[in-house]
From TrEMBL:
One Pfam family matching this protein: Asparaginase
Transmembrane parts of this sequence: none
InterPro entries: Asp/glu_Ase-like_sf, Asparaginase/glutaminase-like, L-asparaginase_N, L-asparaginase_N_sf
Protein name, as recorded: Asparaginase domain-containing protein
Domain L-asparaginase N-terminal: 9-157
C-alpha cells in the first residue's frame, strides 16, 4: 500500500557536526544555529517543513535525558514524517531510543563535515533523508553516506569516517 503524500516534514535539530561553526581565533568548533532550514529553503523544496531546535550539542555529549527529551518531543507531535539532524558519533544510540515511537517515519541524518563548509556531505545526506522519510514505512532509520540504515545493524567506523554494517 503506497504511503500518503507527506503533508509537512517535522525537523528536529540536536546539533552535531552539521551545525558546527569554526572559529579561527580559537582553532575550535562550536555548535551554531541549525542549518537545515536554510538548506531546505535554498534548495526550493516542494513541501512544507517546520523546524524544532531542541539541543545544540556535539553528539558525544548527548545524555540519556537528552534522548528522552528528543523522544518525548517527537512523540507529542502529530506529524507522521520526522527528520532529525544529529551528530554522527551517537546517532545510532538516539535512533535506538526512538524505536518505541509508533506510526511515524523517523529518519536521522547528519554530516561528517559542517554544512557551512564547501564540499560538506550535509546537503547530500539531507536529500537522502528527505527521500527516505517520504518513501519508507513507519519506523526509525539512519540516512548517511548515500544509504539508508537500520539502526540495529549499523555502526560508525570512526577511523574510516563513514557508516557501515555492524558486525
Amino acid at each position: 500500500m503506497p504511503q500518503r503524500a507527506m503533508e509537512e516534514l517535522l525537523v528536529i535539530t540536536t546539533g552535531g557536526t552539521i551545525d558546527k561553526v569554526y572559529f579561527d581565533d580559537k582553532s575550535d568548533y562550536q555548535v551554531g544555529e541549525p542549518q537545515i532550514g536554510r538548506i531546505l529553503e535554498e534548495l526550493g523544496v516542494a513541501f512544507r517543513f517546520r523546524v524544532i531546535p531542541i539541543l545544540r550539542k556535539d553528539s558525544l555529549h548527548i545524555t540519556a535525558e537528552d534522548r528522552e527529551l528528543v523522544r518525548a518531543t517527537i512523540a507529542s507531535q502529530e506529524a507522521r514524517h520526522v527528520l532529525v539532524t544529529h551528530g554522527t558519533d551517537s546517532m545510532v544510540d538516539t535512533a535506538r531510543a526512538l524505536a518505541a515511537i509508533d506510526g511515524m517515519t523517523i529518519v536521522l541524518t547528519g554530516a561528517l563535515n559542517p554544512a557551512r563548509f564547501r564540499g560538506s556531505d550535509a546537503e547530500f545526506n539531507i536529500g537522502t533523508a528527505v527521500g527516505a522519510v517520504q518513501s519508507l514505512p513507519p519506523g526509525v532509520y539512519i540516512a548517511m553516506n548515500g544509504r539508508i540504515w537500520d539502526p540495529g545493524k549499523v555502526r560508525k567506523n570512526v577511523d574510516a569516517n563513514r557508516f557501515e554494517p555492524a558486525g
